[in-house]
Design goal:
Oligomer: single chain
Largest sheet: 7 strands, mixed
Number of helices: 4
Order of helices and strands: EHHEEEHEHEE
Strand content: 25-35%
Structural class: alpha+beta
Shape: globular
Strand order of the largest sheet: 1-2-3-4-5-7-6
Number of strands: 7
């Protein structure tokens, strides 16, 4: 089957929250903390996704193979008045069963295309220092700002560092960027 990437809408939010439960649980169970120390219960994961989808500053995409959701990524616009040109990339996750199929780069490409079309010029993210994700972001043109040691408790119980990264986006064709 062909993998498709689609943006979560108000109409698809409830179904997407339920479908993303297994992706979040699998991601934490495979060693990525993504904000969790232990895999959440299905109820906790559903509530977390639902709250994220209620955030008016967040846009989320899912990658599907037919009806099955295989991965996700979210863009959160800066809430500060001095930051309408920037956003944070959070929760790039791909289920272990679907890794190596080009899903992560497809999700990131969709997010970056949307961000550029929306007038954003700067994206930021943090990722586990030394992780596969960090090397992927570097390959995709992200720049490292620096790292913070012992930033988060990993699912293993050990403290792990985080790397802060950014990416400047190209200006939209036709001139200057709108900041509203």
């Amino acid at each position: 089957m062909t993998v498709t990437v689609e943006r979560v809408t108000d109409a698809s939010a409830a179904a997407s929250a339920a479908a993303l439960v297994s992706v979040l649980i699998d991601t934490v169970a495979s060693g990525a903390s993504v904000g969790w120390v232990e895999p959440p219960t299905a109820e906790e994961a559903t509530a977390w996704w639902s709250a994220l989808f209620d955030d008016p500053d967040a846009e989320t995409w899912v990658a599907r193979d037919g009806e099955r959701v295989l991965g996700t990524i979210t863009l959160v616009r800066a809430a500060k008045r001095n930051g309408p040109h920037r956003a944070e990339v959070i929760k790039l996750m791909v289920h272990r069963d679907a890794r190596g199929r080009g899903i992560a780069p497809a999700l990131m490409a969709e997010l970056e295309e949307f961000a550029t079309a929306s007038g954003l010029s700067l994206l930021v993210l943090d990722t586990e220092t030394g992780s596969l994700a960090e090397s992927l972001y570097t390959r995709w043109g992200w720049q490292t700002v620096g790292g913070i040691p012992d930033y988060a408790i990993r699912p293993s119980g050990e403290l792990g560092g985080t790397t802060i990264m950014y990416k400047r986006l190209p200006a939209r064709s036709g001139g200057t960027r709108a900041l509203a």
